[in-house]
Every structure is written in C-alpha cells, then in structure tokens.
Amino acid sequence: MEFKRVYTSTKTYIILLISAIALLLFTTSMAYRQVMLTQKSAEMVVHTLHVYNAIGDLTNHYSKVESEEFRENLLKNKPFNKAFETYKLQGVKILDTLKILTNDNELHKARLKPLQGLMITLYDQLISLNLVNDINTPEELQACQLQRAKIKTTTNNIRSITNRMLADEERLMNTRKADYSFHKSLTPTMLLVMAFFALTVFVISFFGIYSNKLKIKKSEAFLKSVLTTTDNIVNYYEPIYHNNELIDFKIVYANDCVRDYLNLEPNDIMDKPVSNVHPFHKRDGELEELFQSYREHSKIFFDRQISVEDKKMWFHSVVIPLGNGILVTSRNSTAEEEAKEAELLFKKQLENQNLELLDSRALLTNIFKSILHIVIHFKSIRAEDGSIIDFEILFINEEAITINLGMPENIKNKKISEIYPDIFKSEVFTHLVNAVESDKPGRYEMPYHNNGTVKWYRYTAIKLGDGVTVTTRDITEEKEKANEVIKLNEELIIQNSILTDAERIAKTGSFLWYLDTGVCDFSDNLYRMLDYDPKEIKLTYEMYRGFIHKQDLDEYDKNTKIAINELNDIEHVFRIISKYGLVKHFKTRVQFLTTDVIIGVVQDVTQTIEAEKKLLKSNLELKKSNAELESFNRIASHDLQEPLRKIELFALRIKDTENNHLSTKSQEYFSKVISGVNRMQSLIQNLLAYSRLENSRRGFEEIDLNQVLDKIKEDLTTSINDCHAEIVSDKLPQINGVLFQMEQLFTNLISNALKYRNINQIPIIQIRCEKISASQISEHIEKSIKQYYKISFVDNGIGFDFQHTNKIFEVFQRLHQKTEYTGNGIGLAICKKIVENHNGYIFAKGSVGLGAEFIVYLPIIPL
C-alpha cells in the first residue's frame, strides 16, 4: 500500500502552514490532539495485529497435538522428555507473549488464566499418552483411546477460548481501524484548516507538524515491517468502476508472503486487477463476496484450496472493509487441513481396524466358546534377577469350568499360585517355565483327581511374548479307549480260543479262500469234521472238493461258479465222505470279504437232517391224528348229539303224558335223566368249542374291547339285573384279535363272577386296565413281547383256595359239587386257550370268602 495516498505529504503541511499562520495558535492544540490520536490509533492497530499473530501462533501450537502424525513423531522421539520440553517451552513462550500483549485487556487477562491451566493439562495428558502408547493388550488400547479423547476435549476447550479471544481482537481491530481511518482522514483536513488559520504560528506549527509527521512515518514503517514479517498474506484492494458499476478490484498493496506462498512478486501485481492475478476469485464466486463485503461494509470469511506448481494449499481468508477498499488477510491453513484430513483418514482407519479387531475378537470368542479345549494365557512374573517366579492369568475361556477352576472373570488377572497353591511342587510350573525360556512348545499329560474320579488331560504350552498359552484337552476317553483296545486284544485271544471250542461244540468249521492265489486256509475243526487231526494233511481246495459226494459234486461246482461270477453270497447243503467213509451232510454259507477273498462257514447238519426226517414223519402222523380228530368232531357234533336229543325228546314226552301215572320217585328219576342229557349236550358243545379254537393268526382284526364289554353286558342283562350286580371298568384298549374269541373270554369271566357271587352282598365286578412292561410281570413266564396290556377282572364273590390257582384252568376241573353250582369245568379252560391263542397269559388269584381276581396279559402289537 502506498501510504502517501492515505496521508498528506510534508509539502502540503508547509503550504498549509504558510497559509494558516494567523489561525495556527487557535488550531494548534486541536491539530496536535488529532495527530496524537492518529498515532495512537496506528499503534493500537499494530498492537492488535501482534495479539492476533500471537493467538495464531498459539492456535498452531496446540493444533499440532490434534495431528496424529505430530503425536506419533513426538511420542516416538527418543528421548521423549527433550522433545516434549522443547514443545512445552514454545507454548510457555507464546503464553508469556500473550500476557504482555494483553496486559491492558482485563477480559483477555481473565481468559489467560484458564487457558494456561488447559495448556498445563494438555502437557500432562501428552505425558500420560506417552505412558500408554505401547499397545499390547485390549485394556491398554482402551486406555490409549481414552487418553486421546481427553486430549481432544482439552484442545477443543483451548480452541473455544482462543476463538473468543480472536473474535474480540477482530472486533477491536475493526474498531481501531475505523478509528485509525477516521483520524487519518480527519488529520489532513484539520491541517488544511489549520494552515489557513495558523499563519501567525508558522514556525512553531511547522516544527510541530513536521515532528508529528515523522512519528506517523515511523508508525507506517513499523506497520510495513509487521506486514512484511507476518506469516499471513495481506492484500489491500481498491475498487474498479466502469460506468459507475463495480466490476473488479485492483491490488494496491501485497506483502512478501505473496511471493513465499504464491510465487508472485508483490511489485509485479501492484495496480493489476484481482481477477487477472487471482482468477480463482472469479471462478469460485469469491469475487461477488468481495463486492458484497465492500458494498455492505461487512466482514466475511472463506476457506479456499489453491494449487501452485501442482502443490495444493489451503488458506483461511478474512475480508475487512478498510478505507476506500478492502483488506484481505489470508492465513496458510494447509497444515491444519492436512491434519484434519490425516485425522479423518486415521480415524477411519482406526474405526476399520477397531471393526476388524472386534470381528476378530468376536470370531476368537466364538471359537473359544465352541471348542472343547481349555485355553489359558499366562504372563510371566519375574524376579529382579530375571527368573520366572510366578504367572499371571490374563485370559481363560469358559471351558475351564469343567475342571472346577471357577468362572473365568473370577480368576482372570490372578496369580497362578493363588489358584493352585501347590503349583511349585508339581511339574506343571517347570513345564511352563521351560516353554517360555526355551521358546519351544511343550507337550505333557497329567491326571486330574476330582471326587474319586480320575481324568487325564494333555497340555500344550506355546510361548507368546513374555508369557505362555496353554491349551488343555481332555484325553480321558482316549486313555480309556487305549485301555479298551488292550483289553479287547486280550479278549480277542480268549474269544479265538472260545471260538475254536465253539466250532468243535457246534460242529462247525470255517475257511478262507483267496481267489487270486488259490490258497485256502481251513480251521482246525473243519479237519476234525473230515475225521482228520488238525494239520494232519496239507488240505487244499481241490483236496477238499474231493471229499464231496459224487452225486452232489456237479451241484456244488455250479453254485460255487455262480457265486464267484455274480459275487453273491450262497448257502447250500451237500454230502461229503469222510476219511473213514462216513457220509455226512455239510451246510455251507459263502460270503465275499472282498472281490478276491471268500469266507466260508461249514456246519455238520447230519443230525439236523435226520431230525428233520423224523419231524416230517411226525408231521405226517400228526396230520393223520388231526384228520381223526376232525372225524371225531363231526361225530361229536352230530352222531353223539342225535341220541341225546332223542333221549331228551322221549323223556319229555313220557313226562308230559305219563307224569300223573308215575310215582314221585319215578318223576324224580325222569327229571334227573333230562338234567343229565342237558349236561351232556352242554359238555359236548363246550368240547367242540374248545377243540375248534385255532392257535393261528387267521381272522385277527382290530378290536375295541370297550365295545366288546358293552355287548357282553347287554347279553347278560338278565343275569346282571337278577342279582343287582355292578360292573365298573377302566377305559379298555384296542387290540389285534379274533372278535368272537374276545367276546367268549369276557362272557366266561363275567359269567363266572356272577355265578360264584356272595349272596350276602351286592356283586361288584371291577375291570382294570393298565399298560406295563414285560419286566413288571411278576409271574415266571417267558416274555417274548416288551409291553403288555394288563386286564384284571376283580370280584367280591366267594373266592377260592389259592392252592387251586393252576387247577381251575384245566378241562373238566371243578372246585365245587355240581349240586352247588352249575357248569362242566370247561369255561376257564376255554379262556386260557383264547388268551394263549392271542400270545397272552392268564392267571388267577383268590382267597376263600374274599373274592377272586383273573389277570389277563395281552401283548401290545402295533395295529
């Protein structure tokens, strides 16, 4: 800036002095006061710039801490104390400068006290950050992040104070610049006026004015030096009009920083349009903002990034209307922006690393939770001489609960000697120390005794840092299996011996036939079956084939060929002629172990075949007996009953026609004849029914026993009502059976209870049902089914003596005289045969006078 344009030259004052001698005495005091005010305004502007620059230096000082790169360089600098003290002294020096510069500002003095405390706090936090900088564990990482957050908070607080101080200084700058502009513009006028009115005091005025002018020049020179030495670009623009329209600004003044930052010579750009020198103003729309600031006399701020020789720089600019133009101050904020970008990049990288770390930690946690191994990491605790004296538990997974170590969170960060006081007496501590000191993985096995049980564990110790990670695996099952293998080998030897004896007892032998080599290995008992001692001869397959009966040889070869060609298992029977000429029947089953190896099992079935022949003969005889029984049934059903019907018919006719002519004795005899005939007919019918009960599964169907009971109660309604009997039943199951046989079973058992009732009380018949397992059946029987229905018929009748339990189910067996109770002794025998026909069992329990219980067990077979 050409300050001669702002301030009037010396010649002007001389002319004014000559012209205004007359009034100089009157205006001298006013002129002098105005000059002094102008000088003071300039000094205040310079003072404000010094304060502004000092605050800017402080801002740059603490902003470095926000840069991760700066913190890394500071913390990694060795020694740290020297670099840190240098950095701290810079901050103290800046604060001392601010104290001096703001000594006249009570508000700034009040703000410097907390600011100084925050700076001390910032230095302490940097020291703390240095202590936790080496991150080895998640806890240290968390502490480091917490310390960085504290530093961030402290710098934000410092920035808040410095921003308020800058705002105040900018306000003061505007005020003082306005004062300066006012006094600067008023002084020439006053001098001009004083020149016209101060002719009489020319000499005195001249020296006074000239002296003040020198002071102003000195202030201007001082201001120029400040503008030259500042780190900020300071430009002063004046407007360019065209047809009274503001179209651009010309550069009136530019300090040397233009050369330093933009590679432009200040003198070369003087009086040139701003849009030509700095085209980015017009391109980025900033020129309009400059117009607006000039027109509205408002201060504006903007940040811009420019490129100079492919180097990108950031500038923070402040535009202040000043005089007949605008003052543009641009501060190089490249370091701050780069620090912000680096911080954002680092923050993003840190977030990504944290996410990866969290994912890795989650994955590792899931792995530790899913594996069945116990994983523990120990940190070495060393004595002053460097020897390991103990270990600290840094990590342990939840599987440790299986060996009674407790919950992991309860034992973490404890010494191993606290958990296992006897650790130094065992070999475990030695193994852990060896793994750390030798840096070689250690593996060992040890038993663990707990509540009388012994478990074996295999430990793997691997060094990690100055500690050891121990993975423990339960190998109890492996130990037991190894013992089982040893035991199985022993048992196998015994079984081979038993098998040899079993072959001899069961009259069986075996052989292995290797088709690719033709070698055949025969068991010892197969030699004996051929009437040879074991290994008496070298038996081959061709020799074995020579023992086969000639009539069976072709069939044997045919079956063998089919088995080999089709790789099918075969079983066939053939005859052999032994060493002593005995004919024996051999049953052979051949199986393929592989396509080239056949195993054969040979059994001497001579006795079986002879027994089958005898059985066949017995079957023929049984068929003949069954045919005779069928013939008897036909005779019993017709030929035997026909005479009885005639006897009954003629006896009834004689009784009807001659009854009045017969004596009482004769009438009694005729009644006995008719009664005997009826009993005989009933006996024949029951015998037929008993003999016709088939022991087969023919006619079986799904039966609901509840419906069977309802039908029987309906059929026996008369008998039930006559004795006022009560029948109580549980819910009965559905079974597979023959319907008419189940109806006969229920009819016989209920009728039996009604017949043998106690006449002194109302008959109560209880039918109970439950599902039981075969093991719950107390009676000694062979149970072929796993589950049964237990159906009990319980009455309160006359009962029976327990010693007759088995007798009552025999045919024609009666416990009472026929004169006491009717019947022929076949009903319960029929019940037993029906139950057995359904693969069940029936039993009876009773006591004389206390009732009876008939228990029926029916197998549970899927419907």
Automatic annotation (TrEMBL):
Q: Which reaction does it catalyse?
A: ATP + protein L-histidine = ADP + protein N-phospho-L-histidine
Q: Which PROSITE patterns match?
A: HIS_KIN
Name the UniProt record assigns to this protein: histidine kinase
- Histidine kinase domain residues are 635-862
Does the UniProt entry include the keyword Transferase? yes
Q: Which UniProt keywords apply?
A: Kinase, Membrane, Phosphoprotein, Transferase, Transmembrane, Transmembrane helix
- TM spans, by residue? 12-32, 190-210
What SMART domains does its record include? HATPase_c, HisKA
Q: Which InterPro entries match?
A: HATPase_C_sf, HATPase_dom, His_kinase_dom, HisK_dim/P_dom, HisK_dim/P_sf, PAS, PAS-like_dom_sf, PAS_fold_3
Q: What is its EC number?
A: 2.7.13.3
What's the source species for this entry? Confluentibacter flavum
- Is Protein biosynthesis there in the keyword field? no
Top-level taxon of the source organism = Bacteria
Which Gene Ontology terms cover its molecular function? phosphorelay sensor kinase activity
What EC class is this? transferase
